[in-house]
Amino acid sequence: MPTVSRDEVAHLARLARLAVTEEELDLFAGQLEVILASVARVGEVAAADIPPTSHAVGLTDVFRADVPRPGLTQRQALSGAYETEGGRFRVPRILDES
Amino acid sequence: MSTELTRCSAAELAGRIHARELSAVEVTQAHLDRIAAVEGAVHAFLHLDPEAALSTAAAVDDGLARGNPPASPLAGVPLALKDVFTTLDMPTTCGSRMLQGWRPPYDATVTRRLRDAGVVILGKTNMDEFAMGSSTENSAYGPTHNPWDIDRVPGGSGGGSAAAVAAFEAPLAIGTDTGGSIRQPSALTGTVGVKPTYGGVSRYGLVAFSSSLDQGGPVARTVLDAALLHEVIGGYDPLDSTSIDAPVPPVARAARAGATGDLTGVRVGVVSQFRGQGYQPGVLRAFELAVSRLRELGAHVIEVSCPSFDHALPAYYLIAPSECSSNLARFDGMRYGLRVGDDGRHGAEEVMSLTRAAGFGPEVKRRIMLGTYALSAGYYDAYYGQAQKVRTLIIRDFAAAFERVDVLVSPTTPTTAFRLGERVDDPLAMYLSDLCTIPANLAGNAALSVPAGLSDDDGLPVGLQVMAPALADDRAYRVAAAYEAARNAAEGGPLSHRVPEMEVVG
After folding, report:
1. Are B242 and B203 in contact (CB under 8 A)?
2. What sign for the dihedral angle of Cα B81, B84, B89, B91?
3. How many CA atoms lie within 13 A of B367 on its CB side?
4. Is there a contact between B103 and A43 if contact means CB atoms under 8 Å apart?
5. Which helix (H) or strand (E) segment is B430 a member of?
6. Strand pairing partners for B253?
7. Could you read off the pLDDT of B115-146 as tens digits, one per residue?
8. Which chain B residue's Cα is nearest to A97?
9. Which residue among B181, B186, B210, B433 is the active-site one?
10. Catalytic residue flag (residue B322)
11. Quick one: which H or E segment has residue B188?
């Protein structure tokens, strides 16, 4: 049965870019452990020779004619931005300068 | 008069609007009045746009007055749209703080098709955040209440769409079904809800939760209304590479044929896995009664075992969170939506984490972390890989079953509507709501829920689930329409009209 520690929750939260509080670490550790114990039942199925299905319909490459069609204008693309600058998205610094 | 209009079926309203006996404007106004009266108790909508709705309706009336044919069989009929489809003229929030007030720069294909068909969009309906949940309690904007008992949940994630239709706020609604989010709310609110075959309705502009499972579909009070809406929104879309390039199954014709009440020669399989322990006795009795009605209509009923269905729930709760953890990575606070902590001190990565912490509710966070876990190196094969194999076994069970029968039936959900708050602290208990609906999502075939009377132990609605093979959606409609007609005849009218009167404001 899988166990989930507070440290593991903190690690998962970091991977998923989720800031979590101390209380959330406790809450999620308990809940994820219960959920994982339940979903781990998929392991009971003997399926060594069963091919996996990633998608309900057999996906194949889909082609279309290579003709241009209108996309979003710059203004439309920026319409939901928190902040823009010079017609571009303004984002916080991405390199650690401190 | 206006009360009477809100009780009509979409087909009847459309017929009278197109015959110029009624105007689309007065039909829309009647529904807006009904919304004003009951919305305080139901809270089905996150956003309403009465002016746009009335102007769409007026345009339909104008066209008809000029002698133009109606744009579709549903032109002029009001509809409630789940807030997970993008709309140019209305916010799209997905029930999340992350997208509070977000105005998308494009319409979803479903939205576009509704507009082109002259359907009157009244507003956007409440939902569990990003469609994750079975009660609509995970909405950041407060829960929707079940019109049958406002202390109970309407199901989820599409509780707003189902409740709007059950409360006569709209004759039609659109939902999305990833693990049962159309069918389970329909069962809990006494409405008809359909998950079309995967790929039958375009996902372009449907904000993604689990891309290999998500599917839009109709919600209505009658099987025929659902079919008419299915035909408006269905069909190939070059903007969705997973949409099926084939004609929409003839679902309206099937609904009309079914309503004549003859199921002679139709082979119906009762799924033996979906009974017994954990099922509310009143739900099972209503289900048995429904099966005996199918027999009376001439159907040949046998029991069918689908052993892999026992593992559908755990497989789903690995696959859906895995896809969710990937899809929801796009909410990073950079290009649209919420941004938190951008104070010049925090870098982009910190702003991202703070934004996601503030923007997502607990269930979304749980699923993102669960998916992140299942996809991690070292766990991938045991969890995600194994779940994908279970998916194959479920598809094989369906294939074997459909060699012996035309459709499969089961209760839509193990219990009737539960009380608000009852399952919020117990995610696993909440997940069990989707026990019977999940296999059809994993396999991609068509399935629907049709009202099957009231549970005799609590007087709340029960749903009969009818599952059909992929691209044979019409079969499910035929059986459901026949059953609906027989149930209505035996019980003196549609179940939807037995919803209790709500306290009307004003």
Report:
1. yes
2. positive
3. 29
4. no
5. helix B427-431
6. none
7. 999 999 999 999 999 999 999 999 999 999 99
8. B347
9. B181
10. no
11. helix B183-189
**CB neighbours of residue B424 within 10 Å:** 17
Please name the residues between 237 and 256 in chain B that touch chain A, using a CB distance below 8 Å.
238, 241-242, 244
Look at the block and give the residue holding tokens 């703070």.
B354
Which chain B residue's Cα is nearest to A63?
A: B241
Identify the pLDDT of residue B503.
63
Between helix B251-258 and helix B473-490 the angle, nearest 10°, is 30
CB contact under 8 A, B356 and A76: no
Look-up: residue for tokens 């609590």?
A: B458
Average pLDDT of every residue of chain B = 96
pTM: 0.97
Give the separation between CA B319 and CA A35, rounded to whole angstroms: 13
Q: Binning pLDDT at 50, 70 and 90, where does residue B506 land? A: very low
- CB of B115 within 8 Å of a chain A CB? The answer is no
Which candidate in A21, A24, A39 is best for mutational testing of the B interface (most B CBs within 10 A)? A39
Q: Token match 């429904």: residue?
A: B290
CB B476 within 8 A of CB B467: yes
Give per-residue pLDDT as tens, B346-397. 999 999 999 999 999 999 999 999 999 999 989 999 999 999 999 999 999 9
ipTM for the predicted complex: 0.94
- Yes or no, beta carbons of B314 and A39 under 8 Å apart: yes
Give buried/exposed letters for A80-92 (b at 16+ CB in 10 A, else e).
Answer: bbbeeeeeeeebb
Please state, in angstroms and rounded to a whole number, the distance separating the CA atoms of residues B475 and B250. Answer: 9
pLDDT in tens, B200-225: 999 999 999 999 999 999 999 999 99
Q: B499: helix, coil or strand?
A: coil
Which strand (E) or helix (H) includes residue A39?
A: helix A22-39
Instruction: Give Cα separations from A67 to A5, B202, B272, B321 (angstroms).
Output: 53, 21, 52, 36
> Tokens in use for B140?
């950041």
B:351-380 residues touching chain A, CB 8 A cutoff: 351-354, 356-357, 360, 362, 365-366, 368-370, 372-373, 376
Determine, for residues A34 and B427 on separate chains, whether the beta-carbon distance falls below 8 Å. yes
Q: What are the distances in angstroms from CA B446 to CA B47, B180, B222, B312, B425?
A: 30, 12, 17, 16, 32
| Interchain contact, A17 vs B332, CB within 8 Å | yes
Is the CB of B366 less than 8 angstroms away from the CB of A95?
no
